[in-house]
Amino acid sequence: MVSINIEQLHVSDLIELYRDKELSPVTVTEYVLDKIKVNDSKYNIFAHIDEELALEQALKSEQRWKNGTELSLIDGVPTTVKDLSDVKNMPTKYGSLTFKNAAPANKDSIPVQRLREDGAIFLGKTTTPEFGHKGVTDSLLNGITKNPHNPEKTTGGSSGGAAAAACKKLGLLHLGSDGGGSLRIPASFTGVFGFKPSHDLVTVSPAHAHSELSVNGAITNSVKDAGFMLNTITKPDPNIKRKFNYKQHDFINLDDIDIANLKIAYSNSINDIQPNSDVNEVFNIAIDSIKSINNNVTEIKLELPKLIATFNQYWMASAHHIVSEFSL
């Protein structure tokens, strides 16, 4: 019998192996939990780990796959949640000493609820700077989250724990959030894939001070893995009206999108600030690939002199709102 290297598997691989009964969600979850024990002390990735819940969910998933009653294509897939989103029966501490003794949440946030409904296995909560308010991941509560490629370097932030977990293969799906780069920055720093969905595509609930700016999204080890996660977390909530009328897409098989006829604009700089040469090289390779299937690709120049000032004004106002809720 050929030995299965669990660490090299993507979501589609897991599903095939679960369906063929060649691998069990329990085996995968136990493997990942053991790996977390080894790596978390080195890199400080988790704010909370729940082995009991994860194994309980894995046992139920294993039975569903045996019975052919799996809930979805992410049933039995190990998943983490950034410690800004509520997971029922886990504390949400927001990376802040203010919530050091927070009681377990009594319900899931909407994206977490969608993941639970589809059978995702929750390993725990990943680290964030206090209230997700900066582009590096450290806090007085959790300490410093280190970059797995080089522990002397930062993971970026604020979804730094999620990116480090993806980098070290501590789960396949990682729920983060992004207002000013909090998915994209740590993904780029750790060499994984981070995607910030369009606003309102993923329901933000409960609403918070950053609801008009920040959205939940995926950090994974591949674009396709993120597609599996997006298929789940973009399911609309019947009780919450969306501001925009989105068509429900299959983010794994995007056959209904006519890529060749899309109108595409790109810029490799903002306000004439150029990327590093190695980043620019990879960027240009991607643009050339797009041009090979689309003739309507235009380079534009982004000049946004007020961008940072406008962003900071909005961000600081919402930060003031958050801080004002606490008596010091």
Describe the SSE topology.
Layout lengths: L10 H9 L5 H19 L2 E4 L1 H17 L10 E5 L27 H8 L3 E6 L11 E2 L3 E2 L1 E2 L2 E5 L5 H8 L5 E6 L5 H7 L2 E3 L19 E6 L2 H11 L30 E3 L10 H15 L5 E3 L7 H18 L4
Helix pairs in contact: 2-3, 5-6
How would you describe what is shown here?
- The chain has 328 residues and is an alpha/beta fold.
- It contains 9 helices and 12 strands.
- It has helices spanning 11-19, 25-43, 51-67, 110-117, 160-167, 184-190, 223-233, 277-291, 307-324; strands at 46-49, 78-82, 121-126, 138-139, 143-144, 146-147, 150-154, 173-178, 193-195, 215-220, 264-266, 297-299.
- The chain has a 6-stranded mixed sheet with strand order 1-3-2-8-10-9, with helices on both faces. It has a two-stranded antiparallel sheet with strand order 4-5.
- The relative contact order is 0.11.
